[in-house]
Specification:
2 copies of one chain form a homodimer.
Chain A (H helix, E strand, L loop, with lengths): L1 E2 L46 H8 L5 E2 L2 H23 L4 E7 L3 H17 L2 E7 L5 H12 L6 E4 L9 H7 L11 H8 L10 H12 L8 E5 L6 H10 L3 E5 L6 H5 L4 E4 L17 E4 L3 E4 L7 E4 L4 H5 L4 E2 L7 H20 L3
Parallel strand pairs in A: 2-12, 3-4, 3-5, 6-7, 6-8, 8-9, 9-12
Antiparallel strand pairs in A: 1-2, 10-11
Helix pairs in contact in A: 2-11, 7-8, 7-11
Subunit structure (chains A, B): Homodimer.
GO molecular function, one term (chains A, B): methylenetetrahydrofolate dehydrogenase (NADP+) activity
Keywords (chains A, B): Hydrolase, Multifunctional enzyme, NADP, One-carbon metabolism, Oxidoreductase, Photorespiration
Chain lengths: 353, 353
């Protein structure tokens, strides 16, 4: 981990014209906090209390949890395991990705996943269906991959066009190939003591992995998860609970989210609202995992926008003991965990440990 | 609801010799809090602070949430629905109960369930297998009921003998007949937003029903669930979350459980430790749902023991705005919810609303 003081500033005046979100990622619970914040969000520094300002003037101390580097380390480990698997069995893990329609962001995610597969030795298979395809066509694609022994993981890129029932589609993925971990049977096992899910959803798994690899103890700690989406917030809370943290989920109906969050030794924020979590929300010495990836206007950037998290990074750095940056924190971990799940699936089929 | 001041006292000196628990009910997470309390537990009054004693001297104010009367009301409603169903379709709901071995407490529970079925018009079918039966025999019984259209709910009385794999057994119950709601697919759907479980586990469902029928608002409230068993604590937390409470689960690794619990507008305690939750744990005006049913020595009782909850009732009454007694609180709701689930299952098959 590197010192945070030299990192970019998310809370500078240039984000005053922040807007909500052309590039928001699909796994964020983006509708949750609209009622509790002003839109467009204020720049972080505008409303801070004098007590907090005094704390801010102290030297920044947070360590940066470098997701990019940790994810690379994990991909390297996966690469080595796959080489060994190939030598021993002749088999390599296979991942199928189903993309419906032509959303630019979805195409980018799928392309990135394919690249990451190639780099570690996972074979990837892509099916592109047109925006107006039928639900049956999607189900047929999934059925084909369910029955194909060379495929160990199946991923349906979300969101799907509106005329297709997402629940039906996700339920049709074989539980043994549900590398996204979104099947309710996997979620149920994740929630239950003494049960083991076959797969854990990639983004929350990445959050926990960041904590583990940064030496953050979870057991007995107070944790707050902000947001309760099916794919980040809720499973993140279940994972923290499995690690024996005392977990509270903060959501749009929570009164005093700031007060509750400030009690947490560990905060995982997955609200999808730029700079919502101010420095004053963070317990001194707390650890912050920021899942949010939100685009805010930035005329100085050649793209006209830049990406910031849910957490007002500049402020939080002065209070937290460790924090993930955006970008370069949780983001790279999601694909690394997808590769990890695909490898686990292949090992399970091959009966390898 | 009646005033609590005339209720029995759980925290009197006669419970000084409290012991842990010949009659503890199977759904309580009994191993959770052993490390955090002294055993045998102290009588409530021994260690209370002077500030709390001063509060206690004030008039008691908690309303008693009368589970016995609410459960009767629900059973009456079920009885009326079943009569209508029978008139309209000729079908009545059928419940199968599988009992393995001859544990006295399990036999009592099964007998009580049969009686409750008869009283509302649910036909009950019981299978008694010997303590040394094979797992296959249990699975065969379940398979028979899975295929029997006159059976709408299947209940395997827990605990099972050690040589039988509980997970295998519970997983073999058809999801459409899982009136206990213990199948991981049901739990997964309970955890996920936008999904609906076919059945909700009976005891936590009963807790929420008590809150609803007592006019306690849940949305936006802070709730603490003490205990995280698969059959009470965890699903109770998921249900409160679905009702938009801000939920924290307190468990054996939680530091300062008293401080955390005292923040809660609603406490559901399912720890299985007599009198663990003292008056000082309760927020003034909070609502307390006590799932614990613990036996403590009582030489004055003809049985030699009496039943008390997790919550020190006498103390909590002086702080809470409403509280469930033990017995007569959550207890009677569990069977009422089992009947409700069985009726729902039959209605689903018959396509009735």
């Amino acid at each position: 981990m590197a010192a945070a003081s030299t990192m970019f500033s998310d809370c500078s005046p240039s984000s005053m014209t922040a807007r909500l979100l052309p590039l928001r990622r699909i796994h964020i619970d983006s509708t949750l906090f609209r009622s509790s914040i002003s839109s467009p969000p204020l720049p972080c520094r505008r409303t801070i209390s004098s007590a907090f300002a005094a704390r801010m003037s102290a030297e920044t101390s947070a360590k940066v949890i470098d997701g990019k580097s940790i994810a690379k380390q994990i991909r390297d480990e996966i690469n080595i395991e796959i080489s060994r698997m190939k030598d021993a069995t002749g088999v390599v893990p296979g991942l199928a990705v189903i993309l419906v329609g032509s959303r630019k962001d979805s195409q980018t995610y799928v392309r990135n996943k394919k690249k990451a597969c190639e780099a570690v030795g996972v074979t990837s298979h892509e099916v592109n269906l047109s925006e107006d395809c039928t639900e049956e066509e999607v189900l047929n694609s999934i059925a084909g991959f369910n029955n194909d022994p060379s495929i160990h993981g199946i991923l349906v890129q979300l969101p799907l066009p509106r005329h297709i029932d997402e629940e039906n589609i996700l339920n049709s993925v074989s539980i043994e190939k549900d590398v996204d971990g979104f099947h309710p049977l996997n979620i149920g096992r994740l929630a239950m003591r003494g049960r083991e899910p076959l797969f854990v959803p990639c983004t929350p798994k990445g959050c926990i992995e960041l904590l583990h690899r940064s030496g953050v103890e979870i057991k007995g700690k107070k944790a707050v998860v902000i947001g309760r989406s099916n794919i980040v917030g809720m499973p993140a809370a279940l994972l923290l609970q499995r690690e024996n943290a005392t977990v509270t989920i903060v959501h749009s109906y929570t009164k005093n989210p700031e007060e509750i969050t400030r009690q947490a030794d560990i905060v995982i924020s997955a609200a999808g609202v730029a700079n919502m979590v101010r420095g004053s929300w963070i317990k001194p010495g707390g650890v912050v995992i920021d899942v949010g990836i939100n685009a805010v206007d930035d005329p100085e950037s050649h793209r006209g926008y830049r990406l910031v998290g849910d957490v007002c990074y500049q402020e939080a750095c002065t209070v937290a003991s460790a924090i993930t940056p955006v970008p370069g924190g949780v983001g790279p971990m999601t694909i690394a965990m997808l590769l990890s799940n695909t490898l686990s699936s292949a090992k399970r089929v091959l009966n390898l440990k």
